[in-house]
Design a protein that fits this description.
- The protein is an alpha+beta fold.
- The protein has 2 domains: 71 residues, 434 Repressor (Amino-terminal Domain), CATH 1.10.260.40; 179 residues, Beta-Lactamase, CATH 3.30.450.
- It is 46% helix and 11% strand.
- It has 14 helices and 5 strands.
- Strands 2-1-5-4-3 form a 5-stranded antiparallel β-sheet.
- Helix 2 packs across helix 4, helix 3 packs across helix 4 and helix 10 packs antiparallel against helix 11.
- The protein is elongated, with a radius of gyration of 24 Å.
- This is DNA-binding transcriptional regulator, XRE-family HTH domain.
Length: 283
């Protein structure tokens, strides 16, 4: 086979992978939300026939219709932009870097929350559970983690459950692991993000010395799932809250969350108040 024939052969072997159209994406999101065409059409105040035509590609949705359906499907801003692009429209939600000048007020608010939470740990994470920022008190947890797991982009779930991470120091590893995996699975199902599903598979492959059924009922005395971490000075007994921005219009801001740790008992509060001495913060 001469060079011209080889080129012709390679051209014939080229496979074109097309991106899904807006109708296919709408159908996928509707099914992911476990909605029938009737249920979504009622919510969006359109006919079932019209929705069917949109999903099959027989009709092209207007820009306003795309946004209307995306709203009733409760899509993240990133996925709303993706729907608009698939329909042939420009994205309407900007995606800035956190260092961008227009996000100065957001950065200031985040730093204020982190500083105000001292001496208790707090961390800012993105959509993929990567560490974005943290206050100094997080060191009471991270100083137990192998530094290689904290190299950017550090994934807080990986650092928590990896055998070289926090896992060997977690007293209730089975319970805490089940809690984190449940959160991750729900997020992966809701977002449809394959990277989150891959992360879940990776984390489930980590060894766990204290396996626990994920649907076991908690003891009646427990109010929240606590993270119990053994340090040389004693056991930290912590619970967490998660905060997000209320009305974001930027993709980056919409995917940020702040997880704050609180002491679940007075002994933990006392240890955290002395955390600067425990881990040498501020020295």
């Amino acid at each position: 086979m001469d060079s011209a024939q080889r080129v012709s052969h390679h051209r014939r072997m080229t496979i074109t992978v097309s991106k899904p159209g807006v109708g296919e994406l709408l159908r996928d999101w509707r099914r992911r939300r476990r909605l029938s065409q009737l249920e979504l059409s009622i919510r969006a105040d359109i006919s079932t026939r019209h929705l069917s035509f949109l999903e099959t590609g027989r009709s092209v949705p207007s820009r306003e219709m795309v946004l209307q359906l995306a709203d009733h499907l409760d899509l993240m801003l990133r996925d709303r932009n993706r729907l608009l692009l698939a329909a042939g429209y420009a994205p309407v939600y900007p995606e800035s870097t956190l260092e961008a000048p227009e996000l100065a007020a957001v950065r200031s608010a985040v730093r204020q929350v982190l500083r105000g939470h001292e001496p208790y740990p707090a961390v800012v994470i993105d959509r993929s559970w990567n560490l974005v920022d943290a206050n100094q008190s997080l060191a009471v947890l991270t100083d137990l983690v192998d530094p290689s797991l904290l190299a950017p982009p550090a994934n807080v779930l990986r650092a928590s459950l990896h055998p070289d991470g926090l896992a060997p120091h977690i007293v209730n590893l089975g319970e805490w692991r089940a809690h984190l995996l449940h959160r991750l699975r729900r997020q992966a199902e809701f977002s449809g993000d394959p990277a989150l599903a891959e992360l879940e598979d990776e984390l489930r492959g980590y060894p766990c010395r204290d396996p626990r059924p994920e649907h076991e009922l908690p003891p009646a005395s427990d109010i929240v799932v606590a993270l119990r971490v053994r340090r040389p000075e004693g056991v930290l007994n912590l619970f967490t809250t998660v905060a997000t921005f209320g009305t974001p219009l930027d993709v980056t801001v919409s995917e940020l969350s702040i997880e704050s740790f609180y002491p679940a008992d007075e002994e933990t509060a006392r240890m955290l108040r002395g955390s600067r001495e425990l881990v040498g913060i501020g020295r």
